[in-house]
Amino acid sequence: MRIGPLDLYKKLPKTNCGDCGPPSCLAFATQVVGYGHELEGCPHLDAATLRAVGSALEDQRQKGIYVKRENHTITREHLREKIRNHDFRAIAPGLGLVHSVDGGVEALEVPYFDRIVTMRHRGIWNEGAEEFDPWDEVLLYNYIFFSGSEPLSGKWVGLESFPNSLPKKAALEDGCHRRISEAFAGALKRLESACRRLGGNAGLESHGADLAFQFRPLPKMPLFLLFWDEDQEEGFEAQAKVLFDSGAMDYLDLEGLTFVAEKLAERLIATERRNLMSKSEQNLRDAFAGESQANRKYLAFAKQAEKEGHPQVAKLFRAAGAAETVHAHAHLRALGEIGNTADNLKVAVAGETHEFKSMYPEMIETAKAEGEKTAERSFTYANEVEKVHANLYQQALANLDSIEEVDYYVCSVCGMTVENEPPDTCPVCGAQASAFFKVD
């Protein structure tokens, strides 16, 4: 079922409170459906509605339904053409980016807030399942197009300090300053927590503000957030202000500066909302983790019971393990986190990528430092296999409607997963082909 602006409007509170930024609920619905604005901008939608409607919107955006192509799509395609002949290797140092070549294809690894985006000459690949606003792509193309290289000055200034900035001043005030001040008025500790979770660092200079945090949404685009909390006795309303490096316009234009500041506000508010999940939601997550672990543990116990000659106990462990799977699936459904196959593949790619890029490397280093050889080997095997899983999931996602039917074999020693037939020796742990089992 398609969701148009009026369909989304019916699901909104219809109070025209303005908490989302636009002056009315219908205006907000139009921006979300037609222009790709984030649904989380409305702070009054419950988690279930956000998940259900968000998934439906993503599906129709992928198909181009209701999307105003004359706006972000044309801009994005124009900028993509502009950077097609840029020398990625030459501009990478000046932009603070990592240049790489894989199979003859050049790429730039672009840290953008709390994610890594891979920029190739033919387009962008966003690593992770989180929805990527097409206007984010426009911003990143602009960052590459400008190819700034001048050192940052270290001097903080307001947007009004830049030439011809007056038309953008109101947009920055409405889309960033006012949103932050209204969302966190009287909640200084919550804002501080949101800033830290988003990767901000407390500023060395407070400029007289109650809170000062520095962010780096792009390597050469630092932002400095100042916040003065409300004082009801004095009649002082909360105020927020974002400062830029005085050399920022070597890297983005005024439109880009305004947009990245608005994104900061949007992400701070979304981060805070995620942190305020209901107790029941947290309980469901804890229960899902516990039941999932119990299932795996009981299956391991069953194998041990079989080895020791206790088949009935092994059967009991397998039965209980199956029951824990039923519980875990029920909890996951209650959380609304079983999407369509495309969405599930995106989640799987993000999870596997996090494991082999962040989680396991840290665990491996700790195990080495502590001399825990068994733990180090276990983590290393898993780390290598997660890379394979991420690649398999990515291929399945890219070819979802035409995926070739193949058999999968898994190494019983390290978990290495291969297609069609097992290798003579496992490339991860060196086990023989007989160690592999076929997955039905």
Secondary structure topology:
Elements: H1 5-11, H2 25-35, H3 47-62, H4 72-83, H5 88-95, E1 98-102, E2 105-112, E3 115-120, E4 123-126, H6 134-146, E5 156-157, H7 166-184, H8 188-197, E6 201-202, E7 211-218, E8 221-228, E9 239-245, H9 254-275, H10 279-307, H11 311-334, H12 341-370, H13 373-398, E10 408-411, E11 417-419, E12 436-439
Antiparallel strand pairs: 1-2, 2-3, 3-4, 5-9, 6-7, 7-8, 8-9, 10-11, 10-12
Helix pairs in contact: 1-2, 4-6, 7-9, 8-9, 10-11, 12-13
List keywords for this structure.
TATA-Binding Protein; 3-methyladenine DNA Glycosylase II, Chain A, domain 3; globular; 12 strands; 440 residues; alpha+beta; 14% strand
Describe this structure in words.
A five-stranded antiparallel sheet has the order 5-9-8-7-6, with helices on one face. A four-stranded antiparallel sheet has the order 1-2-3-4. Strands 11-10-12 form a three-stranded antiparallel sheet. The mean pLDDT is 87. Helix 10 runs antiparallel to helix 11 (311-334). The chain has four domains: 5-62, 3-methyladenine DNA Glycosylase II, Chain A, domain 3 (Orthogonal Bundle); 72-146, no CATH class; 156-275, TATA-Binding Protein (2-Layer Sandwich); 277-339, Ferritin, core subunit, four-helix bundle (Ferritin, Up-down Bundle), CATH 1.20.1260. Strand 6 and strand 7 (211-218) form a beta hairpin. It has 440 residues and is α+β, with helices and mostly antiparallel strands. The chain is built from 13 helices and twelve strands. The two termini are 34 Å apart.
